[in-house]
Design brief:
By secondary structure, the protein is an alpha+beta fold. The chain has helices at 2-23, 39-42, 83-89, and strands spanning 45-56, 62-70, 77-80, 96-104, 121-123, 126-131. A 5-stranded mixed β-barrel has the order 1-2-3-5-4.
């Protein structure tokens, strides 16, 4: 009788271990997800008209912005793009221009200084001077 009880206990223990092992099998490997394209490829292109201004950044650098903007979701944009277009911004300061390109909204940073303006960035793909002054 003692052997029968031991045999039943051994079978029950082996069955429990088998069930536990089946529940713990890892899922089959998933193929890697395709890489997300940069935000500039996902953002729709916008055409915005405004005045090119030079501004100081919080780190003491210089940035060019599009102020009094019309045709977009904001009234001010940071102008970005290739280094060649950035070198031309100084020649267009205080001129009214029309720019086209994808717009990137600024990331909201927790604890960011509320006094610091963080306008959207427009990656300029084309520029057209529409007036020689901003008045």
């Amino acid at each position: 009788m003692r052997h029968l009880t031991s045999a039943i206990a051994a079978v029950a223990l082996a069955s429990a271990a088998s069930v536990f092992a089946q529940q713990q099998t890892p899922a089959p490997a998933q193929p890697p997800a395709p890489a997300q394209p940069p935000a500039t490829e996902q953002a729709p292109k916008s055409t915005v008209t405004g005045c090119v201004m030079q501004a100081k950044t919080t780190d003491g650098g210089t940035a060019f912005i599009l102020a009094r903007a019309e045709g977009g979701s904001a009234t001010t944009y940071v102008l970005g793009g290739s280094s060649q277009s950035e070198s031309n911004w100084s020649a267009n300061v205080n001129k009214k221009v029309e720019v086209t390109g994808p717009v990137q909204e600024p990331a909201s940073a927790a604890g960011a200084d509320p006094k610091v303006l963080r306008p959207p960035l427009i990656i300029v793909e084309s520029v057209k001077v529409v007036a020689q002054s901003c008045s």
